[in-house]
Automatic annotation (TrEMBL), chain A:
<dbReference type="InterPro" id="IPR009014">
    <property type="entry name" value="Transketo_C/PFOR_II"/>
</dbReference>
<feature type="domain" description="Transketolase-like pyrimidine-binding">
    <location>
        <begin position="34"/>
        <end position="209"/>
    </location>
</feature>
<dbReference type="Pfam" id="PF02780">
    <property type="entry name" value="Transketolase_C"/>
</dbReference>
<dbReference type="InterPro" id="IPR029061">
    <property type="entry name" value="THDP-binding"/>
</dbReference>
<keyword id="KW-0560">Oxidoreductase</keyword>
<comment type="function">
    <text>The pyruvate dehydrogenase complex catalyzes the overall conversion of pyruvate to acetyl-CoA and CO2.</text>
</comment>
<dbReference type="Pfam" id="PF02779">
    <property type="entry name" value="Transket_pyr"/>
</dbReference>
<protein>
    <recommendedName>
        <fullName>Pyruvate dehydrogenase E1 component subunit beta</fullName>
        <ecNumber>1.2.4.1</ecNumber>
    </recommendedName>
</protein>
<dbReference type="InterPro" id="IPR027110">
    <property type="entry name" value="PDHB_mito-type"/>
</dbReference>
TrEMBL record, chain B:
<keyword id="KW-0670">Pyruvate</keyword>
<comment type="function">
    <text>The pyruvate dehydrogenase complex catalyzes the overall conversion of pyruvate to acetyl-CoA and CO(2). It contains multiple copies of three enzymatic components: pyruvate dehydrogenase (E1), dihydrolipoamide acetyltransferase (E2) and lipoamide dehydrogenase (E3).</text>
</comment>
<keyword id="KW-0560">Oxidoreductase</keyword>
<comment type="subunit">
    <text>Tetramer of 2 alpha and 2 beta subunits.</text>
</comment>
<dbReference type="InterPro" id="IPR001017">
    <property type="entry name" value="DH_E1"/>
</dbReference>
<protein>
    <recommendedName>
        <fullName>Pyruvate dehydrogenase E1 component subunit alpha</fullName>
        <ecNumber>1.2.4.1</ecNumber>
    </recommendedName>
</protein>
<keyword id="KW-0786">Thiamine pyrophosphate</keyword>
<dbReference type="InterPro" id="IPR050642">
    <property type="entry name" value="PDH_E1_Alpha_Subunit"/>
</dbReference>
<feature type="domain" description="Dehydrogenase E1 component">
    <location>
        <begin position="93"/>
        <end position="394"/>
    </location>
</feature>
């Protein structure tokens, strides 16, 4: 049963998956289904329409309709002056975006994947994140850097790294990572309206997934607060924190754990920086056990920071050591079976939860 | 209206080995420069003499300042390049730059200034020649050698000195330092420590100017951006990326190369396959000019044309200013690798002495007037030091301020509620 479940899930990367449980629990009854891709596209469209200072910049965002079709239709609607196809010069065009943001325009810079942002990371950190501080508040940088982050399917080591912990360690940046369509719409709108640099980490495999959204989400003034996590599923036995694609896995793991009598509370972080420490700690104080799930490399990762935060603030409430589930500590392999081993799977989360709850099962190395 | 900056004219001229020959297509170049072993000083001023070039009428007077004197005797009525007011203004700005930097050195050795301090002595002609032609809304982006750019742009000497001392009254409240001078009011966008980092930012500022005019329909927005950087930066990838995009999108920017021949201890000739930086402009479709950066009047003439071009919407220009820094790369640099003979040669071409000579010999100003200016600047700099000395250091609570523009940094507005809960948060809605 577990094997078939995992095969079914992996095989459906590019098809619509309906997380049935979360639909019923999390959203109001007026159920319109939109994909994450459409959610992002509509958010960009509405923000560009509302504020003429917002413009898009990136490789293939215009005539190609977006490398992952996120910016589809925007060139036709807003023209080439507001949707700019750039040459392949990440450092150059990111710096241009930062310079434009210094003057109050609101660029949305797209990286085809965040791996390419490493070519521009000097501008993201040194000229965007640090500028408000270095200029003592004179120069704020209302820019958004967005693009897919983390592993896709079979794209190899240089296209699969997760950058959440790298960017989240830098003061002056806000780092957001949506999971479903509601998150995508709300957080992207908040990011574009925010006066500070925001790194917006999407996930390529989630673009095609559809989720139900309420009418409130579809309203053009909808937006979500930056810095607040969401409790996707309430529970009382163990807290599981996750972001982006891992939220889906955590929810499925929670369903499976329910059958064994363990009620897991799943927290969708939404905002990696600032991290919603109060929600996480409140949850841990309730359940007394914590599992952090992320796709990126384990050392100095998001889970490490959450663990430290919980140990500092809620040590007396912990009944078991914090379990940290992360990607394997290797560059991403190409072979499909190895790739499956290098990324956390639902079974890993289930096993970790059981370890945290019972402590009688011997610790096994995380896959 | 065609300008002289047609791209074809510059790149093909081979480097003249015999410095006394005039170049073939520049009938306007009328004299032979004194010879020198070094690349920079043997190059000619390369503006074309096409008839549509509106400077060609005056090109005979655009020569080394010291040679105007010789020329004057052979002409009946030379036209002067500047008026008395302009001349005194330029002189004052250059003297301010020099005096300020000398004071910085003194303060550093007395321990009042610390960290990295990069001084601009010798290069004042470039800063003054370009920045004094700008309006307040035009912007300047610089490198770590930015004190004098800040002063020329209008940032008060007091604010710059306090910033260097790390006091809370500095232009960045002491949070930026020597290498990160920012001023929103004067449109000085830094102050970047990484070479090449400021070039894309400057290109973005120019992009904004064009965007404001074309998309936001602010018809009178013709703001120009100047990007200052050095010879070492011209080997960096970001430089080429921005030359490409600026020419591609015809942005109102002037790329000003302050070629002082040395990147810390690395000679430009050892680091660069083709040391003629101005040639790299035409490769990207923009004019590339070389000018004697020790002569403020020449720099000013070239600057007028380049800035005018940008303001008219004709696109970017690359200007290479041959200049020299009299001091080391920074105050920590022992400066052992540069030949003292080279330093002496350039010291003889000190831009301030040259302008002084020009003003006096063309009867634009008297010695006494210039002395008054120098005295005034001395007082300004002394006052700046006193002000900085007496200013308080930042309070402890300032450490955590200004990380975000958002006061609490969480998407929370000044009234303490989440921004998204404020009904005025979306100004204008769209129908999807």
């Amino acid at each position: 049963m577990l094997a078939t479940a995992s095969q079914r899930i992996l095989g459906q990367s590019f098809q619509n998956i309906r997380p049935a449980v979360s639909v019923l629990r999390s959203y109001s009854s007026a159920a319109k289904q939109i994909t994450v891709r459409d959610a992002l596209n509509s958010a960009l469209d509405e923000e560009m329409s509302a504020d003429p200072k917002v413009f898009l910049m990136g490789e293939e965002v215009g005539e190609y309709q977006g490398a992952y079709k996120i910016t589809k239709g925007l060139l036709e609607k807003y023209g080439p002056e507001r949707v700019l196809d750039t040459p392949i010069t990440e450092a150059g065009f990111t710096g241009i975006g930062v310079g434009a943001a210094y003057y109050g325009l609101k660029p949305v810079v797209e990286f085809m994947t965040f791996n390419f942002s490493m070519q521009a990371i000097d501008h993201i950190i040194n000229s965007a994140a640090k500028s408000n501080y270095m200029s003592a508040g004179q120069i704020s940088v209302p820019i958004v850097f967005r693009g897919p982050n983390g592993a896709a399917a079979g794209v190899g080591a240089q296209h699969s790294q997760c950058y959440a912990s790298w960017y989240a360690s830098c003061p002056g940046l806000k780092v957001l990572s949506p999971y479903n369509s509601e998150d995508a719409r709300g957080l992207l709108k908040a990011a574009i309206r925010d006066p500070d640099p925001v790194v917006f980490l999407e996930n390529e495999l989630l673009y095609g997934e559809s989720f139900s959204v309420s009418d409130e989400v579809l309203d053009s003034s909808f937006c979500l607060p930056i810095g607040k996590a969401k409790i996707e599923r309430e529970g009382k036995d163990v807290t599981i924190t996750a972001f982006s694609k891992m939220v889906g896995y955590a929810l499925k793991a929670a369903e499976m754990l329910e059958k064994d009598g363990i009620y897991a509370e799943v927290i969708n972080l939404r905002s990696i920086r600032p991290l919603d420490r109060s929600t996480i700690n409140a949850s841990v104080r309730k359940t007394n056990r914590l599992i952090t799930v992320e796709e990126g490399f384990p050392q100095h990762g998001v889970g490490a920071e959450i663990c430290a935060s919980v140990v500092e603030e809620s040590f007396a409430y912990l009944d078991a050591p914090v379990e940290r589930i992360a990607g394997a500590d290797v560059p991403m392999p190409y072979a499909a079976n190895l790739e499956r081993l290098a990324v956390p799977q639902i079974e890993d989360i289930v096993r970790a939860a059981k370890r945290a709850c019972y402590r009688s099962v011997p610790l096994a190395a995380t896959a | 209206m065609a300008t002289a900056f047609s791209t074809a004219k510059f790149s093909t001229q081979p480097f003249p080995l015999n410095p006394t020959s005039t170049t073939s297509h520049d009938s306007s170049i009328v004299f032979a420069r004194p010879t020198s072993q070094f690349l920079g000083s043997t190059r000619k001023f390369r503006l074309t003499s096409s008839s549509k070039f509106n400077l060609s009428r005056r090109s005979k007077t655009v020569v080394a300042v010291s040679d105007v004197v010789k020329q004057k005797k052979s002409k009946s009525s030379p036209s002067l390049l500047i008026t008395k007011e302009e001349g005194l203004d330029l002189y004052e700005d250059m003297v301010l730059g020099r005096a300020f930097e000398d004071m910085c050195a003194q303060m550093y050795y007395r321990g009042k200034m610390f960290g990295f301090v990069h001084l601009y002595n010798g290069q004042e002609a470039v800063s003054t020649g370009f920045i004094k032609l700008l309006k307040q809304q035009d912007s300047v982006v610089s490198t770590y050698r930015d004190h004098v750019h800040a002063l020329s742009k209008g940032v008060p000497a007091r604010a710059v000195m306090s910033e260097l001392f790390g006091k809370t009254t500095g232009c960045c409240r002491g949070q930026g330092g020597s290498m990160h001078m920012f001023s929103r009011e004067h449109n000085l966008l830094g102050g970047f420590a990484f070479i090449g980092e400021g070039i894309p930012v400057a290109t973005g500022a120019a992009f904004t100017s064009k965007y404001k005019r074309e998309v936001l329909k602010e018809a009178d927005c013709d703001h120009v951006t100047l990007a200052f950087f050095g010879d070492g930066t011209c080997n960096n990838g970001q430089f080429f990326e921005c030359l490409n995009m600026a020419a591609l999108w015809k942005l109102p920017i002037v790329f000003v190369v302050e070629n002082n021949l040395w990147a810390i201890g690395m000679s430009h000739l050892r680091a660069t396959s083709d040391p003629h930086i101005y040639k790299k402009g035409p490769a990207f479709g923009m004019p590339g000019i070389h000018v004697d950066g020790m002569d403020v009047l020449k720099v000013r003439e070239v600057a007028k044309e380049a800035i005018g071009r940008a303001r008219r919407g004709e696109g970017p220009t690359l200007v290479e200013c041959e200049t020299y820094r009299f001091r080391g790369h920074s105050l920590a640099d022992p400066d052992e690798l540069r030949d003292p003979a080279e330093k002496a040669r350039y010291a003889a071409r000190d831009p301030i002495t040259a302008l002084k000579k020009y003003l006096i010999e063309n009867s634009l100003a008297s010695e006494a007037e210039l002395k008054t200016i120098e005295k005034k600047i001395d007082e300004v700099v002394e006052d700046a030091v006193e002000f900085a000395d007496e200013s308080p250091v930042p309070s402890r609570s300032q450490l955590l301020e200004n990380v975000f523009a958002d006061p609490k940094g969480f998407g929370i507005g000044p009234d303490g509620r989440y921004r998204c809960e404020d009904p005025k948060f979306t100004e204008g809605t769209a129908h999807v």
